[in-house]
Amino acid sequence: MKSPESQDLRTPLLSRSTVAIAAVFAVALVGASRWSRSAPSTVDPKGHTVMSNKKYSKPSAAELRKTLTPIQFEITQNAGTEPPFHNPYHDNHQPGLYVDVATGEPLFSSTDKFDSGTGWPSFTRPVEPERVVEHRDMSVGMVRTEVVSKGGESHLGHVFDDGPAPTNLRYCINSAALRFIPAAKLEAEGYGAYRPLFGEAPKPASSTTPAPNTCTRPAAGGKPGCETTLETAVLAGGCFWGMEDILRKVPGVIETEVGYTGGKTGHPTYQDVHTGETGHAESVRIVFDPKKLSYADLLEKWFFRMHDPTTRNQQGNDRGSQYRSAIFVTSPEQRKIAEAVKARAAKSGRWKKPIVTEIVDAGPFTPAEAYHQKYLEKNPGGYTCHYLRD
């Protein structure tokens, strides 16, 4: 039997222990409360899922002109629409996140991307609804819903109600408005909060059959819903350094890129094409605004004046099939125009020999190595055999 003295000594000790334990729990609860207030909320006031509370803001126009390419600026700041199919993300199937090219704001996920057949990247929903803002748009004589990024106010494209289930929406977005971040690089790029999307991600919506859409099959008498404001031309006429140096300065040209096309091998390099055995031609891909520069004028006033179209597989000192004269048309309308312009050039009297310029359908275009791009801009006084003839 314990003595009263021992019982009296035990009681204060228990009280002190109880107080200490309670204090520990109180501190823990306060800490948890503070953490919960600083951690990202899981839903916004409208009940939408939120994965990150990070805010994004629009840079100045001067900053954007420095950081964006001409076509990115034209699309995001002037509400342009790039040519279908001739853009980097319409057929991109890698898992990852698509962010605003101007601000980095997360916009769309590959888990919601599907093949709409329109030639533009298409998504069933934004990665977070509050990241994308909708505006009424009547710029092409029909009512459409424009979508812009919330933070940067970048024009992205339009949303239509002809997409696949479950949303039945199709966000028709310009590749030039987006930057793609592969899932494996999300953490390194500062988008770790979105990694759960690509863990046990649901099967992409591309596995479903999209409904007929207004871009490819408008209603009878209606206009396509995704009317492009820009056009692409692909031209070959000798060394692409000199061609690009002239073409990039033409009023109405938004962007130029040199590369290889028209051959029999996939993903050619300069070393491959240089042999003259691949069938590829050194070419320039030109994105231009048809309201400022017509395709006919691009050919007649520039292409047929900047090289000699009567020398087969040769321009100046450059010899081989990679230096042939060719127009790679991207549509039946371009072919019709190219044939008419070629006929007029042949009758102009400027050339004493027959014009041998090929007019063929454009196939895959492989961009040339970085050191070839804007070569004469980076190396003034470098080799060229191109000039404008009167």
Q: How would you explain this protein's 3D organization?
A:
The strands form four sheets. The protein has a six-stranded antiparallel sheet with strand order 3-4-8-7-6-5. The chain is of the alpha+beta class and 390 residues long. It has helices spanning 4-38, 61-67, 70-78, 240-247, 270-273, 295-306, 332-347, 375-378, and strands at 96-100, 106-109, 113-114, 122-123, 132-137, 144-149, 155-160, 170-173, 178-182, 231-237, 253-261, 281-288, 314-315, 318-319, 325-329, 358-361, 366-367. The N and C termini lie far apart (122 Å). The model is unreliable at 1-41 and 200-208 (pLDDT under 50). The chain is elongated and about 75 Å long. It contains eight helices and 17 strands. β5 and β6 (144-149) form a beta hairpin. The longest helix is centred in the first third of the chain and has 35 residues, at 4-38.
Give a short overview.
The chain is α+β, with helices and mostly antiparallel strands and about 400 residues long.
Give descriptors for this structure.
single chain; 390 residues; alpha+beta; 8 helices; 17 strands; 24% helix; 20% strand; elongated; disordered N terminus
The general outline is elongated
Q: Span between N and C termini? A: 122 Å
The proportion of residues in beta strands is: 15-25%
Radius of gyration computed on alpha carbons = 30 Å
Stretches where pLDDT is under 50 for at least 5 consecutive residues are 1-41, 200-208
Instruction: Characterize the biggest β-sheet.
Output: 6 strands, antiparallel
Number of DSSP strand runs: 17
Give the rounded overall mean pLDDT.
85
Q: What letter string, H or E per element, gives the SSE order?
A: HHHEEEEEEEEEEHEHEHEEEHEEH
Count of alpha and pi helical runs: 8
As a percent range, the share of helical residues equals: 10-25%
